[in-house]
Amino acid sequence: MAIHRRKSTIWLTAAAAAMAVVAGGAAVVAISSSDGSALADGADKSLFVDITKVKPNVKKPRQQNNATTGTFTVNCGRNENGHFNPDNFIAQPGVRNGAQHLHDYVGNLSTNADSNNQSLQAAGTTCRNGDKSAYFWPVVRIIDEEPEEAAPPAEQAPPKKDDKAQQDKDKAAKEAAQLECPDAASLLPENVPDAAQAEIDKELENLENVTAEAEKKVASTKAQDRDNVIVGPTREKRAAILNRMMLAFSRQGQQAPDLNPAAACAVKDKAQGEQGLDNGGQNSDDAQAEGTEQKKQQANPEEGADNELEGNEGKIQRPAVVDLQFRGSPVGKVTAMPKFLRVLYGDAKAGQNGPKNAKASWTCTGFEDKVLMDKYPICPQGAKVKRVHDFPSCWDGKNIDSANHRDHIVFPDANGKCKQGFKAVPQLRISLTYNIPLEVQKDGRYLVDSFPEEEHNPLTDHDDFANVMSQKIMNRLVNCVNSGKKCRE
Predict the structure, then answer these.
(1) Is the pLDDT assigned to residue 417 strictly greater than 90?
(2) What SS3 class is residue 38?
C-alpha cells in the first residue's frame, strides 16, 4: 500500500501477500527498484468501498411491547488531552505495548497497562458527570503518499537500575492488598419508585463513601488486624445503609429487594483478577490477540510523543465526534451493570482468529441505520466516515470478567433476547465520526491501527470498556433507560 515504505523488498512483498489474503486475494504489487528500495503499486483499493453501492444490511430486532427505549448519553469529550498508549489492561494487564497499536482514550485519565480497580477508582476523568469509566479504541491515521526510509531498528538496551526499581514498585503496587466489596446497584429492581429515588441515590453515595474510607486504611493496617479494624466495621456500616435502602422501598408499598449480600467485604492480598476470574487462566483468541510475546519488553511511547509504532505510522485523526450512549433492550427492562465490569467489542486479531468475534463497524453519517461494513467506506460528498460499536449486553449476573474476557457478557440473539441464565444490562454504543477528506478516502490513505501482522484489516476494528461509574450514576442510567427518557450528562 502507499504507506511509509521501507528499504526492504522482502518486507513489502510479505506485507502485500498478507494484505491480499485479508482482502480476499486483491493484488498488491511490489517491485524492486535499482537501489534496492521497494515501491508499491498504489493503495489496496479492494479495502475501500463506495458505500452508495452497498445494499442495506442493518437488521434490528423487532421491539416488543415492554421494550426499553430510553437512552443515556455521557459526554466525555473526544480525547482533547491526547491520552494515547499501546496498552490494554483488560486483555493484557501489566504488559507495556501489549496491543502493539495505539489506543485513543476518553473517560478515566489514568488508563495504562498497570490499571486495576483501585487505580481506576482513584483517577480523574474527562466525563462531565464524573463517570470514571475507561473507554478506548484503536486510533485512525492518514498515511503519507511520499515514501520514507525507516529508521534503523533501535538496539535493545538493558534495563536501567531506575527502570528496574520502577518495575518493582509497579509490581508491588499491583500486588498490594485491596478491599473488595460487592456491587449494590445491580441488586436493585429495574424500576425504583420516583418517591424513593432521591433517598436511594443518597444511600448509594454513602455506601461508596464508607467503602472508600475503609480502603484508605488497608495499606497501613497489619494483615492480622484487618478483619477487626476494617472488614468487620465496614460490613456493619454497609449493612445499615443497605437496610435503610430496603426500608425506602417498603415505605412506598413495594417489596424490598434483598440487598444483604452487598454488605460483605473482604481484603485480598493481591490483584487476583476480580470476581470469578483467575488472571493466570487467559486463553483462546483474546489472550493471543493482545500479543503475549510482548511481555519481552517493548518500549511504551510516552503520551504526547509522535506515537508512531512498528507498522502503525501516519497522522493520528482524533474523532470529530465521540458519542457514548447506553441503550435499552427490545424485549424488556435492563438491570445495572456491576462496577468494574469489563466488556470487549470486536476482535483485534480477526485476520488470525477468523470472523467469529469480529464485527462490521464502518459506515458513513446518514447511513448508520442502513449499512455497516467490514471495509473502509468511501462516503458521498458531505457525509463523514463513521465507526459504530455496539457492545454485548447480556451479563451472567455474577462475574465482572472471564478468562477469555467474553464469556461473562455476551450478545443477545437475533430477536434481542438474552440466553438462559443471563440478564440484560444497558447496551453501550460508541459512535466515532471523522473528518477524513474525500480525496484521502478515494486514495485509500486512511487506516485503523492494528497488530502489525493484521496489516490494518478493517475487520479488526475493536473497542474496550471498563465500567467505573459510581453506583449513583449507574442507577440514574438504568432508571433513564427503563423509563423511556432521553438523558444527557
Answers:
(1) yes
(2) strand
DSSP per position, 131-195: ---EEEEE-EEEPPSS--PPPPPPP-PPPPHHHHHHHHHHHHHHTS-EEE---SGGGS-S---HH
In angstroms, rounded to a whole number, what is the distance separating the alpha carbons of residues 470 and 143? 40
Helix or strand holding residue 410 (H, E) = strand 409-410
CA distance 431 to 408: 24
pLDDT tens for 203-262 read 898 988 888 888 888 888 888 888 888 888 898 899 889 989 888 888 888 888 899 988
Measured at the CA of 69, the angle between CA 76 and CA 250, to 5 degrees, comes to: 95
Element (H, E) at 428: strand 427-434
Q: Which three cell numbers stand for residue 314?
A: 501516519
The predicted model scores a pTM of: 0.75
The radius of gyration of the chain's CA atoms, rounded to the nearest angstrom, is: 24
Q: Where are the beta strands (DSSP E) in 30-139?
A: 30-32, 38-40, 48-50, 71-74, 84-85, 103-107, 134-138
| Nearest CA-CA partner of 274 in 135, 464, 95, 403 | 403
Q: How many CB atoms lie within 10 A of CB 394?
A: 22
Q: What is the distance between the alpha carbons of residues 410 and 421, in angstroms, rounded to a whole number?
A: 11
Helix axis angle, 232-251 relative to 194-218, nearest 10°?
Answer: 180
Cβ(97)–Cβ(298) below 8 Å:
yes
Could you tell me how many helices (H) and strands (E) the chain has, helices first? 10, 23
* Mean confidence (pLDDT) of the chain: 81
Asked if 321 and 431 touch (Cβ cutoff 8 Å), the reply is yes
